[in-house]
Here is the input.
Amino acid sequence: MQSKSSKNLAESPKEMTEYYKHLSLFWTDIIHLMSSKPQALTSIGPMRSFATNSKKIAVELIEINESLVGFNQYITEYYKQLSNTWGIAQKKVNLKAPKIPQDVEQIEAMKRIWIDIFDNDFTELFDSKKFGENYGNLVSKELELTKHWNNISNVILQSVNLPSKEEIDEVYKEIHSLKKRVSKLELELKKEKRKNAK
Amino acid sequence: MQNESNIDPKIIEEILKFSKNVIEAPQLVAAPDEINLEVTPHEVVQKIDKTRLLHYKPIIETKHKTPLLISYALINRFHILDIHPQKSWVRNLLEQGFEVYMLDWGTPTSMDKYLDFDDYVNGYLDSSVEYIKNQSSTEKISLQGYCTGATIATAYAALHPESVKNYIATAPVIDGWKDTTVISNLAKHMDVDKMVDTIGNMPPEFMYYCFSVLKPFEQGIEKYIKFFKNIDDKKYVDNFLRVEKWLGDTPPIPGELFKQWIKDIYQKNLLIQNKMYVGEELIDLKKIDMPMLTQVAVGDHLVSPECSMPLHYAVGSVDKTLKIYPTGHVGMIASSLSQKKVLPEMGTWLSKRS
Here is the structure.
């Protein structure tokens, strides 16, 4: 295992992440197994639950790094697109506007040129496929980070015997389904009553 | 020294005046939080979950038998249709003798994330229509939908044509593939499943982002410069702050509803192809057979005319009218043009059929 992991470590960042994930899981599992019996006799409180679930947090933290790599890639591209568009628009403004405005009318004219060119160029960017795709990927990576944070919060909630997000969602879903059925029945009843009243 | 003498002293004067206006602004105008946007008197006649059905008090004697229900958009609040006494869509209709109801969708919370199109169309909207029919002892009502509210109203008119006497679609979101706006570009590339699964409802921050990419320099800089320059103009400032307050008041959109809206309208474009389902029912636009008026704005950068106009050609109505106005998305409903042209024309069309 040692030699295989070391070999993997050198191959790619993804394999390196997998290696550390394995390493972390191995030791948290072993420590948990070694300590669980004496601990179980003495503790049933939140710290015990937290210790039991802590390996989930370790996994999430490692996976956050993977999502962060993607997030950084798309956010860099996002600001690159914005700054490139800014540069091109500014060059267009420089060609059209006087260098130093001499009176109020010239300032107004320069401002108008600046706003029109910048609005046009940025709208063209926001309308483009390359922006749409990168922005979609950026939001997606941001959501992955949020998901990891949610998962970590769930571990903490469970350690203090509070319902997790999934459990709360299940309740919401059930309430929604019940309310829908009741309101449809109520509405049907009202319609029936109206029909019969005629 | 030579350069300094060439600069117009009026520039310095303008800068000083602008600075003075910025400093004095808090003494001259109200904070947006202090402004009440619900200007036309009304009463809340029905409440279901977070939604409210508002009934506006008549200003003159009601002249038309058929009441009008407005289905406002899912984005921001209905206040834009009653933003200012002089620019109020609702007030203008009351002055023309119509009986007006408004459906306020309210502010959904995390527990509303499972609300979907079915809840909005066959639940909240249908309950409101039933209430109005009961109150006014009529079999049918007139229905107006604005923006995404028109998407919901269109689905309603197709599923419940027996309850709709006249249908007015104002800047409706219908054909997502033909939409040429920045919003549709973002919507087409969005992983909406991941968004809803991770955060539940569509967060207001995302909507703010969508607004901020629409003419970012005109709307983000020039607009505020104009505001401070005109700080002494009470009418301008009042109107500006009302619209700004409305723009900033973005409630979340229920997750499932948002998911279906983005996927079925912008990504798969099912509605215009008569392939969209609401609950278990298929929406067939040909079933919209009542008199219909479609209103679009050529300068609409939120819902492009190409996205709205296909509805006019897709419905089964024989009596149908398409009106195109030289204004924008908000200009069509809350401007001098809407008061002088859009509303009088709509009033004339509606009164003949009410």
